[in-house]
Design brief:
The chain contains 11 helices and 12 strands. With 318 residues, the protein is an alpha/beta fold. The protein folds into 2 domains: 190 residues, inorganic pyrophosphatase (n-terminal core); 119 residues, Diaminopimelate Epimerase, Chain A, domain 1, CATH 3.10.310. A 6-stranded parallel sheet has the order 3-2-1-4-5-6, with helices on one face. A 6-stranded mixed sheet has the order 7-8-9-10-12-11, sandwiched between helices. The longest helix is centred in the N-terminal third of the chain and has 16 residues. It is globular. The mean pLDDT is 96. It binds manganese (II) ion. The site of manganese (II) ion has 6 residues, from loops.
Amino acid sequence: MTWAKLRDLTEGNARFLISSHVNPDGDSIGSQLAFSWYLRSLGKKVTIYNRDAVPTKLAFLHDADMITTSRPPGPFDVFVVLDSSNPHRLGWKGTDSIAPIVINIDHHRDNTLFGDCHIVNTNAAATGELIYRFFAEEGVAYPPTVAEILYTAIMTDTGGFRFANTNGHVLRICADLADRGADCARAYRNVYASHSPNGLLLRSRIWSTLQFHFDTRLCTMELPVAAIEQLGASYGDAEGMADTTVTAVGTEIGMLLKYTESETHFSLRSNGTIDVGKIARDVGGGGHECAAGCTMPLALEPARRSMLEIIGRVTGWR
Ligand SMILES: [Mn+2]
């Protein structure tokens, strides 16, 4: 890991494209906005392009409206990929040829170390934490708006300071960000307490599908993708529901199954005893020990059966 190379590549070039993964979360949006702020403070020309729009609950972040979902024309000198273990995760084509230099900043375990400069630290709680460290290393002074962006990135990737990646180091960083002007209550309210009425109805629909398996060690909930449109809700309204699947006493793995007629996506969660990242990777997905995801090209019933079989095999549960 070399901050100097990152500094040299940023200082020595003029036109930057920043992108991050599909279905962006607080860390992907936050790290993009913070790094973009830094580049613009150096007088660089910056475009932030994502396949998917900024979730409404993150629109409060300063300059979130800078992020476009229209394919930018370029040309670019440097392509900055944030919070994405590989360029495929960005969900759009042409990532190979979009710019001659590629920077990869990430904290995912399955990062392929692509790019000309990769800053990949799997001990970091969030990509936002790596940007924070870069700013600290470089002595960058940033405004409260940027502190709030970094705080939100870390808050969301630690599940509101509740996941196993929450530790003294992370909390000290967040204390520093609060001292620099991040409004913690505002970040909480926007991210966790700003449901739309239709969004809450969608959540009640998901709750109603709750089931236990393996003597309550596994908990599942289901989301028919069609219900989103039916209720006039949005995909983002279901966010965080996967986390609630692992909140029962005695439940070690939780999963939310989002399904269409031909495809089922699993959001896997663990209480820390079982590495769900490994389970997800075994079926072509990815993620961390406590939060991971994967997709099967199967309808709900066969996909659920297949996953129960896999979990039974991996854990020895009956
Ligand atoms: Mn992240």
